[in-house]
Design goal:
It is a single chain. By secondary structure, the protein is mainly α. It has one domain (3-159). It contains eight helices and no strands. Helix 2 (10-24) packs across helix 8, helix 3 runs antiparallel to helix 8 and helix 7 crosses helix 8.
Length: 160
């Protein structure tokens, strides 16, 4: 697809052209793919309200593009909400605990009523969900990285 045509599509304006700009600035396809993978994986971390700090820390530690990793974090936020209850329940099951009688709206109601009470009530279950996330996240991160790096290498070659 030609550059002029990309300017007229949503995906072109919001995804492809910004990635091309990063590649033009000398950011390697590997670093961009790593930022995408880490932003996506940290963005679904099963502790609400923690992902922005986690992504900023990862960007600093691994010298990744901070705006890109935070954009990916923001884009996957709905996925974090979708996966929260299944990760909590999988953690319960993995550790032989009874399923939680909980829904996402109920979690938000609990948080609105009392953040500290929510932490006390769901703390152990959240810890188990984090262990589930740790077990699955590295596989997903590798899959996302390898799915992103090849197209980014192709884009870079086309732009050179």
């Amino acid at each position: 697809m030609q550059l002029a045509r990309l300017r007229h599509t949503f995906i072109g304006r919001r995804i492809v052209l910004p990635l091309l700009e990063l590649l033009r600035q000398g950011v390697t396809p590997e670093k961009v793919a790593a930022a995408i993978a880490i932003g996506a994986i940290l963005g679904v971390f099963p502790v609400l309200g923690s992902t922005t700090i986690l992504c900023a820390t990862a960007a600093a530690v691994f010298r990744l593009n901070l705006p890109l990793i935070q954009i990916v974090n923001t884009v996957v936020y709905p996925l974090q909400l979708i996966l929260l209850i299944p990760m909590l329940q999988l953690g319960q099951r993995l550790f032989g605990q009874p399923p939680l009688p909980i829904t996402l709206p109920r979690v938000f109601d609990m948080i609105r009523a009392s953040v500290w009470n929510t932490i006390a009530t769901l703390g152990a279950a959240t810890g188990r969900a984090v262990i589930v996330w740790l077990c699955l996240s590295w596989i997903a991160a590798l899959a996302i990285y390898f799915a992103a790096v090849t197209p980014l290498r192709i884009l870079k070659r086309r732009r050179e």
